[in-house]
Design goal:
Blueprint (H helix, E strand, L loop, with lengths): L1 E5 L2 E3 L7 E2 L4 E2 L6 E3 L1 H17 L4 E7 L5 H10 L3 E5 L6 H15 L3 E5 L10 H9 L3 E11 L2 E8 L2 E8 L2 E5 L11 H7 L4 E4 L30 H12 L3
Parallel strand pairs: 1-6, 1-8, 6-7, 7-13, 8-12, 9-12
Antiparallel strand pairs: 2-5, 3-4, 9-10, 10-11
């Protein structure tokens, strides 16, 4: 079985957020970059677990980005990927990115494609569904559990107010979230081995990017905290009614 895991580069959650060029570009200077946690902790690690149960499983990684993303994809190889693909393009448009992933997937004839449910920077949660549509494959989103029996997958996914259990035949696209697996740290053997694992770079296919970024803006600063004396509940009630509007 062949599994393709989609990997993206995102800023560390502790990164200071700032913008340049009249608030049209993210200021990357000094930012620590990581593998998107949903891609790493859940999608990639679940693929590795499947490989541990069945050593014949092959795990390929795919990322869309310029050369500066290679340390990220090498870390993913150190965790347990067998080889990786990098499409040499820079875009924040989900359709463009999905088109590049779908093109690689068509050539690889994969049984299973894992994505994270979303990236922690743009939170669009759209790439998995677009890839499935472009490949004309079934798509299951927000998966918290994934079990495989032959060519049939049993997937538990989060829905409003509860969970849903779905069965689907491979090939299949699944987006993964918390519950799918547990975070792992690459060991020294994996880190050393990742240096020689194949990383193939390809040019992007022609795909229109239907969206563009007009501007970014940070959230407004939080308002100051008002402390109400314990012996003045009437003032607390007034503030809740008139300012917080929760009563």
């Amino acid at each position: 079985m062949k599994i393709l895991v989609c990997i993206s580069k995102t800023p560390d959650t502790t990164a200071k957020i700032a913008f340049t060029d009249n608030n049209t570009k993210f200021a990357e200077a000094g930012v620590q970059w990581i593998i998107n946690p949903y891609d790493e902790w859940y999608a990639l690690v679940r693929a590795i677990e499947l490989k541990e149960k069945d050593p014949s499983v092959v795990i390929h990684l795919i990322t869309v980005g310029t050369a500066d993303v290679e340390p990220i994809i090498r870390k993913a190889l150190a965790l347990g990927g067998d080889e990786a693909f990098r499409v040499n393009a820079s875009s924040h448009d989900s359709f463009f990115i999905s088109s590049q992933i779908a093109e690689i997937a068509k050539q690889g004839n994969y049984d299973l494609i894992f994505t994270g449910k979303e990236t922690i920077d743009y939170n669009s949660s759209s790439v998995g569904g677009m890839v499935a549509e472009l490949l004309d494959l079934p798509y299951i989103s927000l998966a918290t559990k994934f079990e495989l029996n032959g060519a049939t997958a049993t997937v538990t996914r989060e829905i409003e107010g509860g969970e849903e259990v779905v069965e689907a035949s491979l090939p299949l696209v699944v987006s993964c979230q918390k519950g799918m697996a547990e975070q792992r740290i690459p060991n020294m053997k994996g880190i050393m081995g990742a240096r020689t694992k194949p990383l193939k770079v390809s040019d992007p296919v022609n795909a229109e990017a239907p969206t563009s970024i007009i501007s970014f803006e940070t959230p407004p600063p939080k308002a100051g905290v008002k402390l109400i004396p314990a012996d003045n509940p009437a003032e607390l009630i007034r503030l809740l009614r008139e300012e917080a509007k929760v009563i």
